[in-house]
Amino acid sequence: MKTLPKGANAPLSSAGTVHIELRRPPGRDTLDVVCFAVGADGRIPSDDWFVFYNQLQAPGGVVVLSTPAAGRAEIRVQPERLPAAVDRLVIAAALSHGAFRDLIGARLTATPATGEPLAFELTEAGDEQALIFAELYRHGAGWKLRAVGQGFRGGLQPLAEHFGVAVAEEASAGTPPSDPAPPMPIPLESAPSPASERHRRRARPGRLAWSLALLILLATATGAIRMFAPDWLERPAELWAEARERFSPDPSTGATLDPPQPPPATAERDDGVTAWRRLPTLYQAPTCPWEDAQVFERYHALGDNYVRILQRVERSNKLLGKWRNELRQMTSGCAAPFIDGNRQEAEQLGQLPIAAWMDESIKLNNCAGLLIKRLDKELNQESRPIILQRLVREADRARNLESDLTDIARDLAYLRNKTARLLDGFQENIEACGH
């Protein structure tokens, strides 16, 4: 069995039924396990694809939830039977009370009918009441499992709303009812009640009163004009010409209204700080500075460095947790090795080239997109079967490359933010020691 660290992913055999099991540590709070079958837009196609304690299976039984024992939930998935509208399955859980920091050690295991099982163990969490454990998502012609570990405060409701589900307030507590009733469809537009109709009928005289008041005001203004300036009503054309002559530019002077000028390349405030810069007005098409073989070589180098960065950040995360516990137990001043260790870890963590590899992933993603367009164009123009087979394989490979690069760029962005939080944590340890 292969254990995935947070943020990592691995292929999962999709033949037959995949058994996904979620176990919580013994003696801890009860977990309500849920599954969202979402499309490419990140939202469920309909409420039928939200699987939870009150709706234990998706249409056709392609996703089935069960709780065979206390502290253990199981989701049976048939990936090959999922409709094309379902892009990924999000496996999550919610708490009725407490927080996920009390459930460190909860473990998710995905066991396919054939192939190696994958696992993810929760090693860090905060005061969240809902948490996404993993995602089973399409990858080319197959499927992959990603360890997520992302928390949501507020329980089931904000988690469900994130994926397009409208959750009643009663459901947000996360406790299944003793006698569950079938979910009722949510009407798009409810019929107005008799009370609201009476309210609207009572509101109409108010609008009528405003209209009458406006007419009276206009009549009063007209009467005042007729009394004090009757010539205004007798020569409206002359007044209009006079107004145009007063406010229009003199043609003899050649004065005209200039069109708005584009901003200069750089505008600075008096203090010398750049306020804004002129943006390019022309679309710049993506380019690729490398040949196809170089793109794949750099992709493999990116993957290797991504794994090293991931492992390095996880190591720092464990060290920070260990040193925080030591700091709480200290009764006297901090030892020199403790301070030096935090400083050294912060220095090494700050030197990780995460931003550079993020830029590399974006450039390679542009290359993958251009490669896909070129291969699609060749496929449309080709008719020879042997050549077509080769182009199809290359196009699939390019799409898998683009998908992987998108995932890596997203994971690197997460690691960059996590690195910043870790640096703050090491600095807090040092400051707590009076340095």
UniProtKB/TrEMBL annotation:
The chain crosses the membrane at residues 208-229. Residues 3-163 form the TerD domain. Pfam families: TerD. The keyword rRNA-binding does not apply. Keywords: Membrane, Tellurium resistance, Transmembrane, Transmembrane helix. InterPro entries: Stress/Tellurium_Resist (IPR051324), TerD (IPR003325). The keyword RNA-binding does not apply. Residues 177-186 have a biased composition (Pro residues). Residues 170-202, 247-272 are annotated as: Disordered. PANTHER family: CAMP-BINDING PROTEIN 1-RELATED. This is TerD domain-containing protein.
